[in-house]
Design a protein that fits this description.
- The protein has 272 residues and is α/β, with parallel strands linked by helices.
- Helices cover 50% and strands 13% of the residues.
- A nine-stranded parallel sheet has the order 5-4-3-2-1-9-8-7-6.
């Protein structure tokens, strides 16, 4: 079975044809439990998300802020394993037919085995992987196996990335480019900032891949701001916070993330 990179591309193209940005949600696997995490992803899709990134919890998530670190800690203390991440991808994709990616640091894949990881992700119906800390110049082995199994390789660019570096990254990537709206860790922000629009413009000048913006988007107003210049709007910490705020009440948490997804789905529709 091959991966769903084509489904990912079709989903982003469909959003573009509807004159809107795609809504991409992030939730960690195993949070608050494996079953609860799968239910949360289904709820986010029900609310209107186009694509979901499933986080592979890591003990040292250096690029993640306190909200996602808290969720990762809960998942790890619950004993989440890579097998649970694959199950999460499989069940979320099979239930919705929508593209599901994994977002992970490189170390867990390296330890698990690149061939094994890509084969299992493709078999689960995954669309690809977002690899925020894998340098492009060290990515050949990953990209070889990802391409073999029909998986997208999504690299992250930042406002500090020089144009020459952007060109190198976009040439190696597939699926879409993840543009970090600002320097720093994940988390909600009062403002997404002007850096994001400039980064999208510079990234688009180097490739035809869709450019999706994450880090800091937490509400419909910010989603609308980003949707004016990006192909996709990525939201993570705001969804995680809704579940944390439910304080163990699963029904309330699911209702909260479904409601937020619906608000954001409305926000990514461009005002003509």
């Amino acid at each position: 079975m091959t991966g769903n990179i084509q489904l990912l591309g079709d989903t982003l193209a469909k959003a573009k044809s509807e004159d809107r940005a795609a809504l991409i949600a992030y939730l960690p696997a195993g949070f608050p439990t494996v079953d609860g995490g799968i239910a949360a992803i289904k709820a986010v899709f029900d609310g209107g998300a186009d694509i979901v990134e499933v986080g592979l919890p890591h003990s040292d998530p250096v690029l993640d802020g306190p909200v996602i670190q808290t969720a990762d800690d809960i998942a790890l203390r619950g004993g989440v394993k890579i097998a649970d991440v694959m199950r999460t991808v499989r069940e979320a994709h099979e239930a919705t037919g929508k593209p599901v990616l994994v977002m992970t640091y490189w170390n867990p894949i390296d330890r698990y085995g690149v061939e094994r990881f890509t084969e299992e992700l493709a078999a689960a119906g995954g669309a690809g992987c977002i690899l925020p800390d894998l340098p492009v110049q060290e990515s050949a082995l990953w990209r070889e196996h990802a391409a073999k199994h029909g998986l997208a390789t999504v690299f992250v660019v930042a406002p500090s990335s020089k144009d020459e570096r952007l060109a190198t990254i976009t040439a190696a990537g597939s699926g879409f480019i993840y543009a970090a709206s600002l320097m720093g860790v994940t988390g909600t922000r009062e403002s997404v900032g002007n850096q994001a629009a400039d980064l999208v413009r510079r990234t688009r000048a180097t490739a035809d891949l869709p450019v999706c913006v994450g880090l800091g988007v937490s509400d419909a107003a910010q989603a609308r701001e980003v949707a004016a210049f990006a192909d996709g709007v990525i939201v993570g910490s705001a969804f995680v916070k809704r579940i944390l705020d439910a304080d163990g009440d699963e029904a309330a948490g699911l209702a909260a993330v479904r409601e937020l997804a619906a608000e954001l789905a409305e926000g990514v529709r461009r005002v003509s």
